[in-house]
Design a protein that fits this description.
four-stranded antiparallel sheet; 225 residues; alpha+beta; 11 strands; elongated; Rieske Iron-sulfur Protein
Length: 225
Amino acid sequence: MADRRKQKSTKSRYTEDRGMPGAFEGETVTRRRMMTGTAHAAGGIAAAAFILPSVGFALGPVFEEVEQSWEPVGPPEDFPDDTYVPKVITLVDGIGETGKTTVYIRTYNPDIDTEPRDEYNAWIALSTRCMHLGCPVRFVAASERFICPCHGGVYGITGEVTGGPPVRPLDRFYTRERNGQVEVGPRYSVNSELERFSPRDPGQPLDGIGPYVYPSRPTIRKLPE
Ligand code: FES
């Protein structure tokens, strides 16, 4: 008797033993449960067919390897140390004019430049992308200022913010000399102390906790080793 009670208290795998309506002998899953499970599985597969390609399309480029390139822009004597010379470089190959941008270049000047000189900043190459929302800035030699026409952003001679809404100094490009030519390399970002960081987007400050709040994307070009 005790054995029987023990047997009853154990849940049977058969639907018939569990007293389910419409149960068949030897059946372990009811038809209703089978249909519900099949419908859920079909729904999951259909949703994955839409979602997975979208996720792959969105995240794929993030992990893409980006080739690091250096582009010659002219002999060293083309670049004075007290004003900037505009040069056009190609940022993205294969998309024509859209992939080009203007950079302002001058020779490192210890009277102006506060960051230590090293093998990658013998020429200072500043990006023309405003660090507020990305509008192109223009160098005005008479006032030694970079002016952004969009919201009144103003930058000084080293690209430091002197007025308006930009959140950090103008980005820079590494420079070096090869075969008698100044070459412009990967872009990098700087904070207000002109310390270097992997490139960030406009609107992303790099002072204080900024580098942690706005970490660099894995694909963007890293600083040279
Ligand atoms: S985009 Fe330059 S100040 Fe707004």
